[in-house]
Amino acid sequence: MALKSFRDFMKEAVERYYSSERALKDFFTAPELDRAFGEALAEFLAQYLREFEKPALVELGAGRGILARDILSYLERNYPDILNTLTYYIYEFSPYLIERQRELLKDFKNVIWVSELPKVEGVIFSNEFFDALPVHIVREGRELYVKDDKAPIWLSLENERVKEFLHRMGYESLNQIVEVGLDAVDFLKKVSESLREGYHLVIDYGYTSEEITRFPEGTVVAYKEHKVIQNLEEIIKYAGGVDITAHVNFSALMEYGKDYGLEPTLFQTQRDFLMHIPTFLNELEKLSWEETAESVERLSRLKTMLVSMGDKFRVLLQRKMS
Ligand SMILES: C[S@@+](CC[C@H](N)C(=O)[O-])C[C@H]1O[C@@H](n2cnc3c(N)ncnc32)[C@H](O)[C@@H]1O
Known about the structure:
By secondary structure, this protein is an alpha/beta fold. It is 41% helix and 26% strand. The chain has a single domain, classed as Rossmann fold, CATH 3.40.50. It has helices at residues 6-18, 30-33, 35-49, 66-78, 80-85, 95-104, 160-169, 182-194, 232-238, 250-257, 270-275, 278-289, 293-306, and strands at residues 3-5, 56-60, 87-91, 111-114, 120-127, 136-139, 142-147, 152-156, 177-180, 195-207, 221-224, 227-229, 243-245, 248-249, 262-269, 313-320. Strands 2, 3, 4, 5, 10, 14, 15 and 16 form an eight-stranded mixed beta sheet that branches. α8 (182-194) packs across α10. The relative contact order is 0.16. The model has no long low-confidence stretch (mean pLDDT 95). Residues 14, 18, 27, 29, 31-32, 61-63, 66-67, 91-94, 97, 127-129, 132 line the site of S-adenosylmethionine (SAM).
């Protein structure tokens, strides 16, 4: 009987899912809600990009390319000096999505697709990328595996790196499901090696160690046509044809980031993050005075970013210390 850890199973399922046309059907992100998100982010990023003579932006997992388009268009209109010296790298593993991105971004000459992170000065950032990285699932000394016939099975926890993670994060005595994102930790190392100087910005839904007990059954879910599947057996059954994700453990990103010289300099809810960016506030104010159907619709989308997504999504900025 062949067995795979849930981590290996999730890795394959996520890769299969994003390489197919399904990848455009099940997820719906803040930049896709309204351009105000990408514009606010561009305004925020511009303040950091200024520090560098030849800055780079590296976007991890660019989806349909909408966030890239909104950031580049905003810089073109408001900071042409920055855009003229900027290289925009996209790190993306889905050939299917790369094609969509190339088509959407064809008017921007400074966009480069990469399969390895380049050495840069600037900002590496992502929105809803880390939640797609696979996780080990453990519960009280046992780890979840998946059999050939897709039956889940709990076996004694033997993985030393997973044990070390539980110890370091103070999770050993928790009587609940805990997800261990070693791939996220490994990715931080890549980010750090890629940054000669600069910042790493993560926007995603997630939690901190203080909040972990709010998720006794863990946070892994699958999205199928915008419906959420929470039952692990069902998630495993549909794997490959559904978007499987895990909430991001921001405490782990902060803790392990320090091993690679990534110092947390800002950690906020998405709501607080957006409410501190003048571009976003101005848009909110402008829309609230207008009475066209489109403005009312847009105002409600901006509110979604602040209210239903506002607390669930977090923003972490890490600075690479040389
Ligand atoms: C939910 S989408 C987010 C898209 C976009 N950032 C947005 O906010 O609309 C996740 C993206 O990350 C990419 N992705 C997921 N795991 C990846 C990996 N291990 N390496 C490279 N890209 C990955 C997917 O193909 C997809 O483009």
